[in-house]
Specification:
Rossmann fold; six-stranded mixed β-sheet; 334 residues; alpha/beta
């Protein structure tokens, strides 16, 4: 995606009150008339983060700030602290501060339409960063979660080899669209391997403790399990603990998580976790800012899925063979 210089944008934004027409592409909501977005001076972009106590969202926010700095834009961050109410009020507060664009990583996607309407009434484009999106948003950035699930299944099947193999799946919280894609991609790909059998599928509620409980219950009922796919790395960390508590060695299992968080990177390094499907929260954060600026400039956006105004970023599978390269690449994002 081509990035224009800060000089060009500064000249544009200096004309306070300049109105740029950007037409919606439909999305999940009904088609809309042209929404006129206003680039204000100074250029300020608001970001409402889901929960900045989570390293994933810390990295996301870092990407937002790094990209904004390239265009001399100021970022104002509101931390929802995993509260839908905090996010709605925080977003409305940012809108009232005459920001030029709003980025939201939602706690609850169903709560977005009201915030989107308020932003549009104030001539502010809104970009959804990860999780899920509803309403007449202007762009939605997410990882290709279904492809990531398929990567995990292909890796696990080839790692475990021939012969009948029993596998456990640990889901994200009920209703999670991200979890649906990650597990759906895994299941679909696993069907290509007739020797692989899912014998347990339980909810890990995105957390270490619940991931532990799901893995412990699965192993108690199916002690012959050799592979565990967890739809996020917190659940994978819980599964490792459950295996150890059962008196077994995690190195005798194929444990694949999802996200690429620091705990799982360390576990891959010491051999207790086999692999993770890594997202790029820093890169996602950067892209949300690029899209916000494109919307303000009236530039065309090349969506991966135009009907839902979605841009999907690729994921990568990390194991002991690719760990050093992955860590070096992430260090370069600082």
């Amino acid at each position: 995606m081509k990035h224009q210089s800060g000089k060009n944008f500064s000249a544009l934004s200096a004309m306070t009150g300049l109105m740029l027409a950007v037409h919606g592409t439909g999305g999940k909501a009904a088609a809309q008339d042209a929404v006129r977005f206003q680039a204000r001076t100074p250029l300020v972009i608001g970001y409402t983060a889901q929960d900045l106590s989570n390293p994933y969202w810390q990295n996301y926010a870092a990407g937002v700030k790094a990209e904004a700095a390239k265009d001399n834009a100021r970022i104002v961050v509101a931390d929802a602290k995993a509260s839908q109410q905090n996010q709605v009020s925080g977003s409305r507060n940012l809108i009232s501060q005459r920001i030029s664009a709003l980025i939201v990583s939602p706690v609850e996607p169903a709560a977005l339409p009201g915030t989107i309407s308020a932003a549009h009434r104030a001539s502010i484009p809104i970009v959804i960063g990860d999780v899920g999106a509803t309403g007449n948003y202007d762009a939605f950035v997410q990882s290709d979660n279904r492809a990531g699930g398929a990567l995990a299944a292909d890796y696990m099947a080839k790692k475990l080899g021939s012969g009948n193999v029993n596998v456990a799946v640990i889901d994200l919280h009920p209703g999670s669209t991200v979890g649906t894609d990650r597990v759906g991609g895994f299941k679909t790909e696993l069907q290509k391997f007739p020797n692989m059998h899912i014998v347990s599928e339980l909810n890990g509620n995105d957390a270490i403790k619940e991931g532990h409980d799901a893995a412990a219950n699965s192993l108690a009922k199916n002690p012959e399990i050799k592979g565990i796919y967890a739809a996020n790395d917190n659940e994978a960390q819980g599964a490792i603990a459950a295996i150890q508590e059962a008196g077994k060695n995690p190195k005798d299992f194929v444990i694949v998580g999802f996200d690429g968080n620091a705990g799982s990177v360390a576990a891959i390094g010491n051999g207790t976790q086999t692999a993770t499907v890594a997202q790029d929260p820093f890169g996602q954060g950067q892209l949300t800012v690029k899209l916000a600026l494109q919307l303000l400039r009236g530039q065309r956006i090349d969506y991966s899925h135009p009907q839902t105004k979605t841009i999907q970023l690729p994921v990568q599978l990390i194991d002991s063979n690719t760990l050093a390269q992955f860590k070096a690449a992430r260090a370069g994002q600082q």
